[in-house]
From TrEMBL:
The gene is psd. One of its GO terms (molecular function) is phosphatidylserine decarboxylase activity. It holds the Pfam family PS_Dcarbxylase. Its EC number is 4.1.1.65. InterPro entries: PS_Dcarbxylase. Keywords: Decarboxylase, Lyase, Pyruvate, Zymogen. Transmembrane segments: none annotated. This is Phosphatidylserine decarboxylase proenzyme. One of its GO terms (biological process) is phospholipid biosynthetic process.
Length: 306
């Protein structure tokens, strides 16, 4: 996404790593999102209902109803998804949520085998930040990343001062399982309570503080060559939940960590200062305030070994 301060009504674009082209994002529910965040009445509705946890639980319940199954095939057709990647055929999903957090065939997302490589934890539009202290103007002009609030701990934030971030923004049309970006030993996921605002580009252009006000979960991963890596899953409006499927202990890069139920959502990976070299295309487009579309398992960074 071009994340500058231009008109919020402008088309949302990103760079596609695989086609080598800038492309326009098809935003699911765009008309409703623009009404919610760009009109006075919509912002009132947002404050009263849309960002409340009960609203997302209610919407998630709807996506768990058998009647929601009728949405699956039209969704696949409208957004051009490839059923050949699915582990299970589209007809097997009993609800829309079962389709939404579907598993893929292993061959659909090969994992970079280099032991020094960090991989994307999720499909989506990726934004790299080489130094978290240099984020003024990120999505919203004049705002910066509040790391202590994002991590829910000023003490933890001190350990990552000057560190790097990898933000994976998933839209509803993306594969919604998330995976470990590195191998190591994972601790338990810690929940940080909050509201559930949209993390769509329409919303983030208005308010960056959504990232540290939304409900999220944080996992610490001890590694041999990258120090302690943090992985955060951020909930969003209409996300019925963040579900962890891993057991604390040894984990492998690319292994399934969990999934989001219906809605757009986001993961954030945080590295200690000087630990990684982010991929060139990520840095190139980040300098232009632009996201890069890339898939889970592909290379995002390399260990910065001394």
């Amino acid at each position: 996404m071009d994340i500058d301060s231009r008109s919020p009504h402008q088309a949302i674009t990103y760079f596609n790593r695989y086609t080598g082209q800038q492309e326009q994002e098809a935003i699911y529910g765009e008309a409703f999102l623009r009404w919610t965040y760009e009109t006075r009445l919509g912002r009132i509705a947002l404050a009263l209902a849309a960002k409340r946890v009960w609203f997302s639980k209610w919407y998630g319940w709807r996506m768990d109803r058998p009647a929601s199954r009728s949405k699956v095939l039209p969704f696949i057709e409208t957004y051009g998804l490839d059923p050949d990647e699915f582990r299970d055929p589209p007809e097997s999903f009993r609800t829309f949520n079962e389709f939404f957090y579907r598993k893929l065939k292993p061959a659909a997302r090969p994992i970079d085998p280099d032991p020094q490589a960090v991989v994307f934890p999720a499909d989506g539009r990726q934004l790299a930040i080489a130094d978290v202290s240099q984020t003024d103007g990120l999505w919203v002009k004049g705002q910066h990343m509040d790391l202590p609030r994002l991590l829910g701990s000023p003490e933890l934030a001190e350990r990552y001062a000057g560190g790097s971030l990898l933000i994976s923004r998933l839209c509803p049309t993306d594969y919604h399982r998330f995976h470990f970006p590195v191998s190591g030993t994972a601790g338990p996921a810690r929940q940080i309570d909050g509201s559930l605002s949209s993390v769509s580009p329409v919303a983030l252009r208005r308010r960056l503080d959504i990232l540290w006000e939304n409900k999220r979960q944080l996992t610490e991963i001890e590694t041999d060559h990258l120090g302690t890596v943090l992985m955060i899953e951020v909930g969003a409006a209409c996300v019925g939940g963040i579900f962890q499927t891993f057991a604390p202990g040894p984990v492998e890069k690319g292994a399934d960590k969990g999934y989001f139920t219906f809605g757009g959502s986001m993961t954030i990976v945080v590295f200690e200062a000087g630990r990684v070299r982010l991929a060139d295309d990520l840095l190139e487009h980040a300098a232009e305030q632009r996201e890069v579309y890339a898939r889970m398992g592909d290379r995002a960074a390399m260990a910065n070994n001394p």
